[in-house]
Design goal:
It is built from five helices and 27 strands. The chain is mainly β. It has a 16-stranded parallel beta sheet that branches. Strands 3-4-7-10-13-16-18-20-23 form a nine-stranded parallel beta sheet, covered by helices on one side. A two-stranded antiparallel sheet has the order 1-2.
């Protein structure tokens, strides 16, 4: 502990009127769903600093309007909190049933899983989804989002089950994003495809977490507009599929890390379909438990580690960049 200097005293005289301006922040939060009161406070508010407080978030001024996180423990509370936007914390496991959650185009939500489980089972006749992000959605913390669709598995190959569909800005920093639906494609090659994240337009960043499905962990395809996806880490259980469509829309995937392995019919950890010339990918790093595949794209694998010699040997040599840092465990 040191002594305050004259400069320190002057610093707390914010309006320079000769008096001390001391701000006291009082915090309160329900402890239900947390191990103790301190964990609840830390989870809800984080450390109070000059750049993080109810009036300022991540250094950005909130224009004098204090913003506090919302704690939810029921489906109704969750839907209302997401519609309002802001920071939302789960304090209990929640089953939303057949109701889909929609983040509107002009809305911004940070969903903190807080070690809890969020489940749903949409039975829409056509494409089925649990969360539809059209705005800006960030997912933080440990916990699980699990979609087990009750839709009929039959149907055209264009239909699917999606835990999250994205046409906005989506960032995954943790948690398990899972699709537990029965996969029709695995049954007869023509039914609905189970996918954890369907990235159809906008931007996707995955920094950590587990993306898991009974078939595809992630699809990057511009059904709603140009798509850009960046993977910096995480574990992918189920194939990562990248494609573009006939027309002007493009798909771009950059892989800087993560661990990959398919389930089901296709043996590729990552597959890029560039048959119409508008899908691109760059793989700089990652761990690949099986081969990497592509159609119409070459020399895009610049680095990474294959878990087995077999996975490396089954990857078309034309996919490796002329200068690369690829290794085999």
């Amino acid at each position: 502990k040191g002594k305050a200097t004259n400069e320190d005293i002057e610093a707390i005289d914010g309006n320079k009127n000769g008096t001390y301006d001391i701000l006291v922040v009082s915090q309160a939060v329900q402890t239900q769903g947390f191990e103790n009161a301190q964990q609840a406070l830390d989870t809800a508010f984080g450390p109070i600093t000059v750049d993080n407080n109810p009036w300022k978030k991540n250094g950005e001024d909130l224009n004098g309007t204090p913003v506090f996180p919302v704690m939810v423990s029921t489906a109704d509370e969750l839907v209302a909190a997401i519609a309002a936007g802001g920071d939302v914390y789960l304090t209990d496991d929640i089953d939303i049933g057949e109701e889909a959650i929609v983040i509107a185009k002009d809305n911004e939500v940070t969903l903190n899983l807080n070690g809890k489980k969020l489940t749903g089972a949409n039975d829409s006749v056509d494409s089925c989804y649990m969360i539809d992000n059209k705005g800006k959605l960030t997912i933080n913390g440990d916990g699980v989002i699990d979609f087990a669709s009750t839709c009929d598995a039959s149907g055209s190959i264009g239909d699917g089950y999606y835990t999250i569909t994205n046409t906005g800005d989506l960032t995954i920093n943790g948690g398990v994003i899972k699709n537990s639906s029965n996969d029709g494609w695995l049954v007869d090659g023509m039914g609905k495809i189970a996918t954890a994240i369907d990235h159809k337009a906008g931007n996707l960043t995955i920094n950590d977490g587990t993306i898991e499905s009974t078939y595809r962990s992630l699809r990057v395809a511009p059904f709603g507009g140009n798509v850009v996806a960046e993977i910096n880490g995480g574990k992918f259980v189920g194939q990562v599929w990248v494609q573009s469509l006939n027309g002007s829309k493009t798909s771009v995937l950059t892989v800087n890390g993560g661990e990959y392995g398919p389930v089901g019919r296709d043996g590729s950890s990552i597959f890029v379909d560039n048959s119409d010339g508008k899908a691109t990918a760059v793989i700089n790093d990652g761990i690949f438990n099986t081969k990497i595949g592509a159609n119409g794209l070459t020399e895009f694998v610049k680095g990474g580690t294959f878990a087995t010699q077999d996975a490396y040997d089954k990857t078309n040599p034309a996919l490796f960049a002329a200068v690369n840092t690829v290794t085999v465990k």
